[in-house]
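INFO  loader      accepted 1 record
INFO  loader      residues=464
INFO  predictor   begin
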Amino acid sequence: MGVVAGLWLVYFVFGTTNGFGLDATWHDEQRFIQTLLLAITALSLLLLSVRAEVRAAVPRITWPLWAVLGVAVVSGARAQFPGMAAVEIGLFLGLFGLAMFFATFVRVAPALTARAVLAGVMIIAVTQEFAVIARYASAVAVGMPLDLDTLTTGFANRRFASAFYAVLIPLLAAASVSDAIEPRWRRACFGLMTGLWAINFGLGTRAMLFAFGLAALLLVALLGWARVKRAVLAIALSFALGGLIYLAAFEWLPPLMGWSAATDAAHLTEINHTSGRVPLWIAATKAWQTNPWLGIGPMHYAALERVGAAHPHNWPLLWLAELGVLGLGMILVALGRFFASARTAVTTASTQQDWVAQGAYAACLIGVIYGLVDGNSVLPVSQSALTMAFGLMIGATSATSNRDWITQALAILATSAITLAVTIGPQFSKQGAEAQNFQDAKVQDWQSPRFWQQGLRWQHWPKP
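INFO  predictor   done
INFO  writer      dumping tokens
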């Protein structure tokens, strides 16, 4: 299990800011690596399931999840591009295997999991902040303007990083106030959290403010002020200090030192701007109206003409458009059951790993809210990180399976096989039937690479 977690750590450390040179586009590259890791993760869980303690720790699959899978299969089978729908379903299964892996991990070795999560989030935060500090120092040294275009050089997408930080910050906050962690590490977590907030001020992603503000109110309502006040106050204080660091680095220090300053902090004044979301939401609503019950098919929002994005930056509208009322309804039921059962587990968690349970719970809630205005559930890095957070909470809350272990192993094997097929199979087909169907659809050239932004695209579609 440690080897698999280590591979994911490497992916997270480099995924948001650096390319691996595997593909010309960072979307394709990050998705390709993600699906390979999903396959390795699922296969590892299969191999580990030969151990009785692992089999006993595998969570039970609840009926809403089976229902969502059933709706996705039916909707995909009748969609315009069933092959691409199958690819997206394969990705869903791979993510499901990832959640199952970490849910099992936290049950088999809770203390080890707590230490691994602490080390992981700290390493990731250190590397993210070091990258920005190094760019800042380099810009000062060579006289480059201190704007965000300079400091985010190498970032795949500015929102990519913020969506990832929305998972990291709640875990750092929970660790920073946990009595189970040594004071020096608590202080380090608080400092790293402050640094991530400073970076996010520069990134200017308004979804962070929306998600954390609303989540704070919901956490107080769900868990009680007494249980969450230390973490909420830690986040608020680190947010304020991060803002001061940002202002000092970009507004106050450069004039004093005579450095070249060209800050683009003006984007912070656009907090009420929707950034073109409304047309995407309207397109999703219109797509849903064409098939209200089952939707237009998994990944098929990306095939809509003249939309301008491959997903509506709103997960309920995405699932409503692609899986219809039935699919979205089952997803909402699954989320409701999850948060209800997780609430009980968080309020009764043991001292040893209670900070992990609380941090993961907050990360899941923040991620769900964040996804109302951005695509964190679609982008590969944040999608994987959020899935892990759900896995940690599932491991702490759901019942173990009472099925025979062979059935579980076969389910995991199926997940592995599908994920491997999704990852490797299309590489060997440059002119597959699906590509021909896409060409026949006479879709505009600018739309031809849009599939991969939501799911996977390893065939290079021919021009229409």
